[in-house]
Design brief:
The complex is a heterodimer of chains A (about 475) and B (about 525). Chain A has helices spanning about 5-10, 15-30, 40-60, 75-100, 110-125, 130-150, 155-185, 190-205, 205-225, 230-240, 240-265, 270, 275-295, 300-325, 330-355, 370-375, 375-390, 395-410, 415-440, 455-470, 475-485, and strands at about 65-70, 75. By secondary structure, chain A is mainly α. In chain A, strands 1-2 form a two-stranded antiparallel sheet. Chain A is globular, with a radius of gyration of 21 Å. The two termini of chain A are about 30 Å apart. Classes of the chains: A mainly alpha (about 475), B mainly alpha (about 525). The interface of A and B includes residues 475 and 478 of A.
Chain lengths: ~475, ~525
């Protein structure tokens, strides 16, 4: 294969390069200082500057559907939006890492290096249009994550989480690769753009191709925790340090869905009723499993973990819509908007959880929050906003996320999925209200850390305000997303 | 701009109160704000043109252009009095809660004003999604009000309230989105405006449940029926009322229940006329069962607040009955009864709150002989009781009379049963009155250590406007109904081709004759009634 790397390719991938270089700065500094940790705030700002440069480069050079590296990577609206969402979520998580007792400390430079490498993997994933590139992106992102979780000082749960995540993640990657092999076998190509036009037909005529597509999709289902492949999620989310959990629940999920969207955009769902039906049922089952299991949880992080499973179900509804719609930009814009709102709300909720942890072994239970509203009224109010938004109560952003998502589904005739989604959001109200009930309506002394973390607080307040105000301008924002996808 | 000001001013008040530094002046400040809001809403009466059924004082701006969702508010004879009811009850409620809410005073008043914005917005919004935002927003402050300041089982009650209402309304949201797509199909332009929804011709097939109009009808009707609350889905109401603090109960019974009946009037009946007509028997049945069942259950309640809560189920049954009679009497009576119920039940809850503050008990059996100890309180309670059981000259009589007249005209069978509710209503209220105020002095009344004091000046000031309204509305109903007549006639006469025109400023009187009355329709309705 003849491979020419031109300047335009380099410019297009410059955000990844920038991130990669920025990730090296803190760790190099540490080596040069004789393995002594530099001031964490410097490390953090180096990383954040890298992120800002990367976002700038992405906006300047990205977009317009340009491809790079022999059609291996594509730079369009999905890349830009999902990339920016992921980078925002990653930087918010890094701010949390800077202050959380479990992650700050003597290995902070290494941690930031890993988080940034993971972010590079994410950028590859959002732009990958070759299935092998997708695989590389997935692995790069996940390998750094396994290490990040395992690096935690806490002994029991986080090690278990890391191992569980590693084993199941590798299993999912294997499934994915298995599917890619079938696709390569039947089409002679792994590039989505190459077999895109015939995918809808191939999936009907060629059983092996359908088999391959199904495995690729199942691989993604593992990554984004679609039931029944979600079993790792609660354990890993609970066991990991909270900032890492936020990282996984938002950034990782966003980019995995971006890659999922690319595979779905082959329109193989239109060709195959089997795949279509299977995904619809998976979406319904995921919503139900996530929401009903969340009701039973006492641990706050575990509850949010199950809620994020449920949200994967909602997003899958949007992905399916985008896959079968003639106006795919509409469905995809719904997905991106939903992920944006979901990322903000979930980041906020985890940031508060992270602030409440007294030490790295401290587990915040919902019942421990009694009296929280009296002790920390501001944080309680922000938490209320996040939870109500997650439940989809207007006028918060979460409502508009659901509105656009289900609007697209109804427009595509997937009325029953929209109804399932709505019914599930009623179920979800029950558990989202529980922390609010405990915070405001039960007397007690909340078993939480007394300290206030400045950077995290700023982040929480900013996200809360964004959730309220972006609800009012959601229309133009949605149109902007949709237009960038056309 | 007046409608926007009226809707969003309370939100500004809420913000001011939230940052107000002096905790001791919050109550007078909030009262002042609520009075300002009430006076401002009186300006609506001044500007309102009662001669037309058109939508007035319209404000419309594009909000989400992609889906044709607009910031769209307007007022007509149906919503006018509900707005005034809301702004009238709020200052009274704040004054009534002066001493009963002693904790987290600031939070309480913030909730109160956010709730006011949500309720006013619900009554004024003319765009489906805009309406839905206010509709759901009203849940949050009420949820906190019951949950924080409520009684011992407040958490159960408030979560139940929230989930019931939410469960009803999500299907309505799906139906709204579906109708937005219908507007796109018919006009090529997606719109969430209620006026465009009215223009839709939604296919209806009788005899089956799975016809488009029927399904949409039930999606909307379920949301509103839960809010009303209609008979089988009413169970959240007694819980919420009993656990809510006095002001919460007053607002809940006084205004929030009306959001449901208003929804039937504004949305369900004009949007789905055929389905409403076809399924009218069901809703009249629900209404009638609600009337009788609510009254029977109220009769045996040992807790006076629960008694009033069940009486609400009964009273709201009347409103439902009147609405589905589809004639001018029924509709007028229903609209009037919404206001009456707001005044009289609100006043009952305030009175119960006053006595509860003194004795910390609501058990009827612990009272008795109260009349000798608290003469003023007894007088007020008696007047409100009379209003609640619809004695002539009080407001309740006008409403119930119209409703029953309309029902006799349309579906006499239901009227036969509903009339028993009038008697039963008198039975449970008067029996309760007898047990509480007359006879042997109960253990709470003769308690030597805690002598009961009669109403003080503040409490009298709370009750006076309510009593004035009871008689004013009872003696001069036309002072009120004249404003709504055009709108109600328009709804009754053009139910199947309902349409609202936006009033152009300057062209007031010309637009009155929007559609002439079709005699066929009224005879058809009468014929159906004869069957």
């Amino acid at each position: 294969m003849n491979m020419n790397i031109g300047l335009s390719d380099i410019l297009l991938v410059s955000p990844m390069l920038a991130l990669f270089l920025a990730s090296l700065v803190p760790i190099t500094a540490k080596v040069l200082r004789g393995n002594r940790e530099q001031n964490p705030i410097i490390t953090l700002s180096q990383a954040l500057i890298g992120v800002v440069i990367a976002v700038g480069l992405m906006i300047v050079f990205g977009g317009a559907g340009k491809t790079a590296f022999n059609n291996g990577l594509i730079f369009d609206g999905v890349t830009q939006w999902m990339g920016i969402i992921a980078l925002f979520a990653a930087s918010a998580s890094m701010v949390m890492m800077y202050e959380n007792p479990a992650t700050t400390g003597k290995q902070f430079s290494e941690l930031i290096f890993l988080a940034m490498s993971s972010a590079v993997g994410m950028l590859i994933l959002v732009s990958a249009v070759d299935l092998l590139m997708v695989f590389i992106g997935l692995e790069m992102m996940s390998l750094s994550l396994y290490l990040m979780i395992a690096m935690s000082h806490e002994e029991k749960l986080s090690k278990e989480a890391a191992l569980k995540y590693f084993i199941l993640g590798s299993f999912a990657s294997a499934l994915f690769l298995y599917g890619v092999a079938f696709i390569f076998g039947t089409t002679g190509n792994t590039n989505i753009l190459a077999f895109m036009d015939q995918a809808s037909e191939l999936v009907q005529t060629n059983r092996l191709f359908m088999f391959g597509m199904a495995f690729v999709i199942l691989g993604f289902c593992f990554k984004v925790s679609i039931a029944p492949f979600h079993a790792w999620t609660p354990d890993v989310y609970q066991g990991s340090p909270t900032p890492h959990t936020a990282f996984m629940a938002t950034a990782v999920k966003a980019v995995s869905f971006a890659a999922f969207l690319r595979v779905i955009a082959t329109r193989s769902l239109v060709g195959s009723d089997h795949l279509f039906d299977m995904l619809q049922w998976l979406a319904v089952i995921t919503m139900i499993v996530g929401n009903t299991a969340a009701i039973l949880q006492n641990n706050f992080k575990r509850m949010i973990a199950y809620s994020s499973v449920a949200h994967s179900g909602y997003i899958l509804v949007g992905v399916i819509t985008a896959g079968v719609s003639d106006d795919a930009a509409f469905g995809a814009a719904g997905v991106i908007f939903y992920i944006l709102s979901y990322a903000l709300m979930t980041l906020g909720a985890f940031a508060i959880a992270s602030m409440l942890e007294k030490s790295e072994n401290h587990i915040v239970n919902i019942d421990d929050l009694a009296g929280f509203a009296k002790q920390r009224p501001m944080l309680a109010l922000c938490m209320t906003i996040f939870l109500l938004s997650l439940a989809g109560i207007p006028p918060a952003l979460g409502f508009f996320g659901k509105f656009y998502l289900f609007n697209a589904a109804i427009g595509e005739g997937l009325l029953w999925l929209a109804i399932w989604g709505m019914v599930n959001s009623v179920i979800s109200v029950y558990y989202y209200l529980r922390p609010i009930v405990v915070m405001y309506m039960k007397d007690g002394n909340a078993d939480i850390a007394e300290h206030s973390l400045n950077a995290t607080t700023v982040m929480v307040v900013v996200t809360a305000l964004a959730i309220i105000f972006m609800g009012f301008v959601s229309g133009p924002l949605f149109s902007a997303i949709e237009n960038s996808l056309l | 701009m007046i409608l926007s000001t009226i809707v969003f001013l309370p939100l500004v008040f809420a913000l001011i109160i939230a940052v107000w530094p002096n905790a001791r002046t919050i109550r007078p400040l909030a009262l002042g704000f609520a009075v300002i809001e009430f006076i401002l809403s009186l300006a609506l009466l001044q500007q309102f043109d009662p001669s037309t059924s058109n939508l007035q004082m319209v404000e419309r701006y594009m909000w989400i252009e992609r889906f044709g969702i607009s910031y769209f508010m307007g007022i007509d004879g149906i919503s006018l009095w509900l707005i005034l009811l809301t702004t009238f009850l709020t200052p009274i409620t704040i004054l009534a809660s002066w001493t009963s809410i002693s904790e987290r005073v600031k939070g309480f008043h913030v909730c109160m004003f956010i709730l006011q914005t949500a309720m006013l917005g619900t009554f004024l919004a003319m765009d489906a999604i805009f309406f839905y935002v206010f509709w759901e927003l009203s849940l949050i402050p009420m949820y906190f009000m019951v949950g924080i300041w409520g009684g011992s089982r407040r958490i159960y009650a408030t979560v139940k309230f929230f989930i019931y209402t939410m469960a009803g309304s999500v299907l309505m949201l799906v139906a709204m989105i579906y109708m937005m797509y219908l507007t796109q199909e018919t006009t090529g332009q997606m719109s969430a405006s209620l006026l465009d929804f009215y223009k839709l011709q939604i296919p209806f097939v009788g005899g089956t449940f799975f016809s488009l109009q029927t399904l949409l009808f039930f999606a909307f009707a379920l949301a509103f029926a839960i809010k009303v609350p209609a008979f089988p889905v009413h169970t959240w109401l007694p819980d919420a009322h009993v656990e809510a603090p006095t002001p919460g109960s007053v607002i809940l019974a006084g205004v929030m229940l009306k959001m449901g009946t208003y929804g039937f009037m504004r949305w369900v009946i004009p949007l789905f006329p055929e389905a409403s007509e076809y399924w009218a028997w069901l809703f009249m049945l629900i209404g009638t069962v609600g009337i009788v069942y609510g009254a029977l259950v109220a009769m045996v309640q040992p807790d006076v607040k629960k008694l009033v809560a069940y009486s609400s189920v009964s009273h709201m049954g009347y409103i439902l009955l009147g609405l589905f009679a589809f004639n001018a009497y029924g509709m007028t009576g229903s609209l009037y009864q919404m206001l009456n119920h707001g005044i009289s039940t609100g006043a009952l809850f305030i009175l119960i709150g006053m006595i509860y503050e003194r004795t910390h008990s609501r058990e009827i059996s612990k009272y008795g002989g109260l009349a000798g100890v608290l003469p003023l309180f007894t007088i007020f309670f008696f007047i409100i009781t009379l209003s609640s059981i619809a004695v002539p000259m009080t407001n309740g009589f006008v409403g119930e009379f119209f409703i029953l007249m309309g029902t006799f005209q349309a579906q006499p069978v239901f009227a036969y049963f509903a009339v028993t509710g009038v008697v039963l209503g008198a039975v449970y209220m008067l029996w309760m009155f007898k047990r509480v105020f007359f006879g042997e002095q109960g253990e709470l009344v003769k308690d030597e250590h805690h002598p009961l004091h009669d109403l003080n000046a503040r409490e009298i000031a709370v009750m006076i406007p309510l009593v004035i309204m009871v008689f004013w509305m009872g003696l001069f109903p036309n002072n009120f109904l004249n404003y709504s007549k055009a709108s109600i006639d328009h709804l009754v006469n053009n139910k199947n081709t309902y349409n609202l025109t936006i009033n152009q400023p300057g062209a007031t009187a010309t637009a009155t004759a929007t559609a002439p009355t079709t005699p066929e329709q009224s005879t058809a309705a009468a014929a159906q009634g004869d069957k």
